[in-house]
Batch of 2 targets.
Target 1
Amino acid sequence: MHLTDEEKDMLSGKHGEGVRKAMEVVVKFGELYDAKRLLKVKNAHIDAAAYTTIYDAGTDFVEFLGKNGARVAVPTTINPGSRDIEHWLAMDLSPEFSALSERLENAYMALGVSPTWTCAPYQCTSVPAFGEHVSWSESNAVNFANSVLGARTNRLPDLVDVCCAVVGRVPEYGLHLTENRAGQILFKLEGFGPEWFRETSDFAVLGYLVGEIAIQRVPVILGLPDSTGKDQLKALSAAAASGGSTALFHAVGHTPEARTQEEAFQGRTSYATVSVTPEKMNAVRARLTTAAHGKADMVMLGCPHASYFEVLEVQKLLAGRKVAPGTKFWIQTSRTVYGLADRSSLRKDLENQGVTFIKDTCIMVSDTEKDWGFKSVITNSGKVAQYVPGLAGGMVALMSTAGCVEAAVKGAW
Ligand code: F3S
């Protein structure tokens, strides 16, 4: 791999042992992909934020970098950690677990990472420009950055993401290269009436369906309505990344590299065409809904972390009603969105109605050993439907946001 003089200096230890180790990891990782050189990045987003994703060994590594003089070289945001930093007791976490999370949080602060603790940095702090090279991890954020913003990043592994932030570079391979961003498989929406794709969970179901079929190919979606918005594309990004491993999709007329179908495919031929129909969508939704009808133990919104406008929508749908006793209603969000809600009456009003804001974290990356005690989780998120049964226990019902709010008020679904 070709390295500049500055990069060679980093690798030689001239900038300290922490930077040397980070550069060694980045170069070795690049060699795995036959990268010819490193690219400078404008910003970074770290996924390896939760204690339950990297445990003690990962924490030791992040501490090692900081203690040996490393600092992030570019503005760097970070994913949810394993606890609500202010209100971890409200999550019923143990002091021992909280301390493990705090140690990792401190290690990142020592590196100079911005304390965003959110998986949706693109909706508050960090919005890369079209064509910009960035080093991001976190599957939904990578998919959103590539697809909806037109920035360029691969889905970096945990801890490699930290090393890239420290050296401010990524190996040039995969989705950094224009030719690898061409669409490969066409998904045609057919037979949908105007009632479809008005709300989040339809996009989550579509994302899951597309991700499962496309796997690592770049999907092109044809037929989304003009009304499609950023929060809906966020739901699609998250579900496609968890249903398969989609890191880039094109939606013709909606995403910046797909003003036309020809542009999305870069003039090439589609590998295959898949017809997406209401019947197929209903079948995926039914498959992801594993909970038996009855009591709603937990209503969970905010995966990926809720935007301010999604929180506003909940207030509108609740229309002054209260959450049923015996049902928990969590909105997972960033500290930034929570701060906005706090400065308006939104936070107070929703809390008075029985909603709990969980910030800095989410249930899937919090204490995965803990018995949360939920038998049924009602959600509008395809990613929750995919991961909650394995990571937090409980069976899931995938519903519209309005359906989730009604389940919270009735205490049943
Ligand atoms: Fe974010 Fe947790 Fe979902 S990190 S994307 S809220 S699983």
Target 2
Amino acid sequence: MKDDSNGPARAESAASSDRRPRGRVSLVGAGPGDPELLTLKALRRLEAAEVILHDRLVSEEILALANPAARRVYVGKVRSDHSLQQSGINQALLDWAHSGKQVVRLKGGDPFIFGRGGEELEALVAQGIEVEVIPGITAASGCSAYAGIPLTHRDHAQSVRLVTGHLRNGSSDLDWPALASPGQTLVFYMGLHGMQEIRRQLIAHGLPPDTPMALIEQGTTARQRVHRGTLATLPSSLDSSLVQPPTLIIVGGVVGLHATLDWFDPGEANARGWDTGHRR
Ligand code: SAH
């Protein structure tokens, strides 16, 4: 069942506290796209859910695995209006839990990696709501695996950094000298808009312009595309107007391994009906 309003009816949430049924909120990671990357625990909670609040990044195929009687509430966020919408989402979670429901807050990837799961958990814990967090496969793990790009490799990278590419204050948001150190893999989430600045700053702070770089589009789905190049050349091989979000950027020597380790065939995945894609 779909629903336009975010929360339960006021009369329901105003039930007297001692007679209230106990609600519970599960913050659940849905993984990066391929429904088979859901955890067993996530699937069980989806099957038992009474209310599901979900994001834009969660595919229809994953929602189709949920209890068909569950009320579905879409709480996708607009890029420019995060904070206002986030407080509305927190409130809706509280209201549904107070009304005694088994609530699943379903998020793309992992709830604690650029997913605002921490903020939602803070709001729920502050109100004494029963909560749990079910981790998911984050985009960095899912996309790198399906693109044949090991995030660490003894010959190339001894550490990995997961970085936001959403540069709110221009380039000053990030510690560029640290990001430009050798021997590590950088994974930029939300980096498509800031890609030129990211490339420029990494080169300016000392990464060689021929450092391998990849942009992975709709990773782990039947429409996955991997654009590979270097910090200097990637844009000439990529017409960003044709790129379909979500996209992930990986920078570092490990990206070169894609040429030989690229095992995933999205066309075959499509034919086998693995996944037909992200919700938009
Ligand atoms: N909590 C999520 C991240 C949310 S931020 C996680 O753990 O994966 C949203 C960003 O995640 C997108 O802008 C994109 O950079 C990345 N992302 C999520 N799913 C993706 C996918 N299937 N392919 C490529 N990038 C993805």
